[in-house]
Every structure is written in C-alpha cells, then in structure tokens.
Amino acid sequence: MKRPLIERLDKSLLDHAVAAGTKDGGPDILDVYKLQALTEIHYYLKVEHDFSAAEVKALMQFQDPLEVAEACWEEHDPEYGFSICDLLDEIHADEMFPLVDPAGHELEQERLIREVKAVLDQNMTDYHNSLLVMDRAEIIHKCGEIAAMQDAHDFMKNSYIFEPGDAEALLKMEDPLRFVADLWPGEASELFDMGSHVGDAIEDAKKTMAEKERAARPGPAPSAEKPSIRVQLREAERTASQRPAQESRSKPDKSR
C-alpha cells in the first residue's frame, strides 16, 4: 500500500541531496542541517512508521511529501505520537505546500462539502420527525430551539464559506446541525459575524478531536525526545554569526 509513497520519499531525499551538492558556491552548514532533518524523517517513515491508508493518501497529494512530513514532525507533540493526518490539518499543509493536483484536491473538497450538506439535511429530517411525537405544549416550549435549528440549517447550506478541514471535522460529528444550532445567538444573530463564530467553533472542535485521537494512540514516536532540527538550525546560525568576532578577538598579535 505504501510502496508508491516510499518511492516518492526516496526520490525527494535524493533530489534535496543533489540540490544541496550542486548549489552555487557549494552547500553551507544550514544546507547540511536541513538535509539531516529530511534524512532522519525519511528513515523513520521508511523503516519505523506504521502508515494508515489515510496517511498514505494524504501525503501522496503533495509534490514533495518528504518536506511536508518533516514539517509535520517539527510540529508534533511527542506525548501523543505522530499522527500525520491530524498534523497536516493543524499546520494547514495544503495552503503551505504545493499539491500534485490542485484541481483534484478542489474537487475532493467540493465532494466533502456536498456530503456535509446531505448530513445536515438528514439531521434536520430526524429533528422534524422527533417533533412529530410531541404534543403542542412541548413544541411551543421548544420554539426557540426549533428556530435555531432552522436558521443553522439554512446558514450552513447557503451562506457558510467552508475552510479547508471544516467539512472533515463536521463529518466526524454525530449531529453537526445540532453542533451549529447550539452556537446560534437567537434573534441577535444579525449582530454577529456568524461565519467567524461558526468557523472558530469548528476550529476548536478540530483541536479537541485531534487531542482525543492522539491520546488514544499508545506511546510516543521513536526518537521523540531528540532536539528539534529547527532548534539546531537556529543554534547553528547563532554560532556562525558569532564566530568571526570571536576569532578576531582570539587572533594572536603578530606585531610583537
């Protein structure tokens, strides 16, 4: 299942090595550190990581899956292991890194949004059916809730602008319509930026779901306590910037 991805990871590492070696003036120390970071994540992915089908599919959509995986590694929390799909969403990888087929990715997002809207329709149908078994007094008591459900349904179907990852998060919920309706401020909704209000709530829900999924996975990823390559790069830059001054101060005085 992962063989095509491994082949692309191999090619990516070799391409980066060639680019560093053929750089005008030759590679500098930062190039070496960057190549080291890519080499380490390449080895981990190829030899140790237990890929899920979703992770393979997710990485394969990028032009340089190794670079993307390295960015995910730098952002992961060792306590929760290395969940690539969650991390891709957290770092908004599809906005940061070029895709193999941007048009295909856009079509997939459109498909997910259609699926969400179908689920919202089903949620609304189920809610209507639940009202049919109530007496008039119960329905009158729920008039505020009914209005919120209807407004939320209409807003999500016709007005909400879906950001990357929103559809996936809503599809993971048992009742996404109820989730949105519970955010509804009633008659004051016209005074709110409901797009931002709902979007922020979905973003919080994504983080909560990601934390729960990570907590359910046993153990940290191998070498999780190793210092970040980015930290090493910053330290290398700091050391390189200080070295000329230090060398000039320590250079012996030949005039004596």
Summarize the structure.
By secondary structure, this protein is mainly α. The protein has 13 helices and no strands.
Structure write-up:
This protein is mainly α. It contains 13 helices and no strands. Helix 1 (3-21) packs antiparallel against helix 2, helix 2 packs across helix 4 and helix 7 runs antiparallel to helix 9. The termini are far apart.
End-to-end separation: 72 Å
Rg, Å, rounded: 26 Å
Output the helix-strand order.
HHHHHHHHHHHHH
Report strand %. under 5%
Mean residue pLDDT: 82
Low-confidence stretches: 219-227, 245-256
Keyphrases for this structure?
single chain; 256 residues; mainly alpha; 13 helices; 70% helix; disordered C terminus
Secondary structure elements and their pairing?
Blueprint: H1 3-21, H2 29-48, H3 53-60, H4 65-75, H5 84-90, H6 93-96, H7 102-132, H8 136-141, H9 143-158, H10 166-171, H11 176-181, H12 194-215, H13 229-250
Helix pairs in contact: 1-2, 2-4, 2-13, 7-9
